[in-house]
Amino acid sequence: MTDVVQRGLWFEEYQEGTRYLHRPGRTVTEADDVVFTTLTMNTQPLHLDAHWSSQQGGFGGQRLVNSMWTLSTVVGLSVSQLTLGTIVANLGFTEISFPNPMFHGDTLYAETVCVGKRLSKSRPGQGIVELEHIGRNQKGDVVCKAVRSTLVQCDPEAGGAQNQ
Fold first, then answer.
1. With the C-alpha atoms ordered 10, 14, 20, 25, is the resulting torsion angle positive or negative?
2. 3-state SS, residue 34
3. Looking at the domain assignment, is residue 150 inside a domain?
4. Is residue 127 part of a domain?
5. Average pLDDT in the 119-133 region?
6. Tell me, what DSSP letter sits at residue 121?
7. CATH number at residue 137
8. How many domains is the chain partitioned into structurally?
9. Alpha carbon distances (Å) from 115 to 18, 148, 150, 154, 163
10. Mean pLDDT along residues 50-55
11. Are 60 and 103 in contact (CB under 8 A)?
12. Nearest one of 61, 23, 67, 60 to 44, comparing CA atoms
């Protein structure tokens, strides 16, 4: 019998320009938004107060899903396919934007493009992979974009890319 362990990609397996589609998506509920918003101490009524939101002119009087939930979930949707057990650390995020809102009942789909990679100069057996995460709602509208720099393990079976 052969054992297969689910994992993310080793450094060598990332290919620049490859787009990874993360499925299934995740439908956001009112409970998701309220719990996340209160756990993070974000008291913005735009997320918590239906009456207040209904009195405002924008977004059809609807509450918006907390954008940090959206960003966190876009990254989370990528984990099992890309970084599960192979990431060493997140190094940082840049170019974060939320071009369209998410509402309760919307479904979030994520995709990631590998936009760059290089071996680490200071950490043998590891490499830096730059990923562009994109979140889309069920209509295909982009609701989140972020570029993330990660430190990833090289494949130990391939000699850890120490000679590349």
1. positive
2. helix
3. yes
4. yes
5. 97
6. S
7. 3.10.129.10
8. 1
9. 8, 10, 12, 18, 23
10. 92
11. no
12. 67
Torsion of Cα atoms, 60 then 72 then 141 then 95, to 10°: 110
Show the domain range for 35.
11-161
Structure tokens at 22: 């993360």
DSSP H/E element including 145: strand 142-153
Hey, CA dihedral for 39, 41, 47, 51, is it positive or negative? positive
Ramachandran assignment for 44, one of left (phi > 0), alpha (psi -120 to 50 degrees), beta (any other): beta
Q: Of 92, 87, 107, whose CA–CA distance to 146 is shortest?
A: 92
Rg (CA), the chain: 19
Strands (E) in 13-141, as ranges, are 19-27, 87-97, 107-119, 126-136
- Whether 1 is in a domain gets the answer no
Q: What pTM was estimated for this model as a whole?
A: 0.91
> How many residues are there in the chain?
164
- pLDDT at position 161: 54
